[in-house]
Each structure stands twice: as C-alpha cells, then as structure tokens.
C-alpha cells in the first residue's frame, strides 16, 4: 500500500484559492501570515489539546491521592474515559452529517462551553478535613467524561476550520497552517501535561487543575467577542 500511495493523484482542493497582493511591476507576494480567524482556530486547537493533557495527568493523581484508587483501577478509568470520547466524537460526526446546516464553529463553541461548565464537576467542594465521598467520585467521573468528549470533538473541528481557513487564502498559508496546527497541538499537550501534573500534586490540586480547565476554555470563548471575529469564522 505504501508503494502505491505516491502514484495516487492528489484530490482536487476544494477550498484552494490563490490570494495575491500586487506590488511594484509584475511582482506579486502571497500572504503567509495567518489572519485572525485562522489564529483563533489554532488557539482553540491548543486549548482543547491542553485540556486533554491537563485532565489526563491530573486525573492520575486525583483518583489515587484523593479517592484511594489503585493504579490498575485508575488506568481502567482513564482508558474508559478516552474510549467514551472517541465514541462521542463519532456521534457528533453523525449528527453533522444529518444536519448539514450546523457549522463547525457552532460545534466547537458548544464544546468549549461544555468544558467551561462541566469542569465545575471536577472541583472538590468538600472541606479539607473530610475525606472523599462516593457522590464526589461519581460526579468527578461524569464530569471527566463530559469534559473529554467536548475537548475531543472541539479539537477535531478546530483543526478542520484552521486548515480550511488557511487553504481559502493561499497554498503558502495552507502549508503554514499544517505545520502550525501541529505545533499548537504539541504546545497544548506538553504545557497541559506539565501544568496538570504540577497543579494536581499541590495541596488542593483537584481544584487547581479543574480551575485551569475552566480558565483556558473561558478565555478562548472570550476571544470570540472581538469585533467581527465570530462572523468571519462562520464564513469559512
């Protein structure tokens, strides 16, 4: 299969539109710096990838330190949450196929809002003198599933919007966006893993890591209040 792939012609690029800016004489220069709508999509990729990393690393500590779970049970729990996020992503994809009027931005914004709201289920509202109770464990597990589902499909559609937005401008910007989305995603993952584990290991770490999820998703949504940014992304 690998030997045959180079022989397959590249499919038509639906959104490829060369954008040129005239300069002196016959010289033309292509714009390769991402515009505001592409930058927001890339930032959303970083936020959602960071959300996954923050939750994964913090959950490993919270479930063992606060809940007293074994490593084996914690591993099963984290794996089950990731599996549920994959299934949730497929359900969202099927929903979009049935309702083509829905824009990817609507799905992404809904996912970010879900992270913002459902991260409140990850906080420990009990006094520090009181140990974890079964209702708190159930609430944490349910909140984890909702947050990870939202982060998973929001990241997927943020990547799609970023690449389509860049491809509608020029080939150069499209090529730049391919590398940029990978860089933003890796930055979110590495930064999220570092902060998630570092915060969760501190006293009151469950609330600190949950607060980080609330903060980054809220800030990403707040950026959409910039003039004309939301409408510009919807036109992509």
From TrEMBL:
Keywords: Membrane, Transmembrane, Transmembrane helix
Keyword Transmembrane: yes
Source organism superkingdom: Eukaryota
Chain segments annotated as coiled-coil in the UniProt record: none
InterPro entries listed in its UniProt record: MFS_trans_sf
Sequence intervals crossing the membrane: 38-55, 67-87, 107-126, 138-155, 176-202, 208-226
Protein name: Uncharacterized protein
Organism: Polarella glacialis
């Amino acid at each position: 299969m690998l030997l045959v792939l180079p022989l397959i012609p590249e499919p038509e690029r639906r959104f490829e539109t060369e954008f040129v800016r005239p300069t002196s004489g016959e010289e033309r220069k292509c714009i390769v710096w991402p515009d505001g709508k592409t930058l927001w999509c890339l930032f959303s990729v970083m936020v959602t990838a960071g959300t996954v990393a923050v939750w994964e690393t913090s959950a490993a500590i919270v479930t063992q330190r606060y809940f007293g779970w074994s490593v084996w049970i914690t591993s099963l729990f984290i794996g089950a949450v990731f599996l549920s996020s994959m299934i949730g992503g497929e359900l969202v994809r099927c929903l979009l196929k049935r309702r083509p009027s829905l824009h990817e931005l609507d799905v992404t914004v809904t996912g970010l809002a879900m992270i913002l709201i459902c991260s409140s289920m990850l906080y420990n509202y009990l006094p520090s003198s009181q140990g974890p109770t079964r209702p708190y464990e159930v609430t944490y597990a349910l909140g984890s599933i909702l947050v990870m589902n939202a982060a998973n499909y929001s990241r997927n559609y943020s990547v799609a919007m970023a690449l389509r937005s860049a491809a509608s401008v020029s080939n150069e910007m499209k090529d730049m966006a391919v590398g940029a989305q990978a860089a933003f995603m890796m930055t979110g993952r590495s930064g999220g893993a570092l902060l998630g584990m570092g915060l969760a290991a501190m006293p009151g770490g469950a609330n600190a890591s949950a607060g980080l999820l609330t903060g980054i998703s809220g800030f990403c949504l707040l950026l959409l209040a910039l003039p004309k940014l939301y409408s510009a992304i919807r036109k992509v």
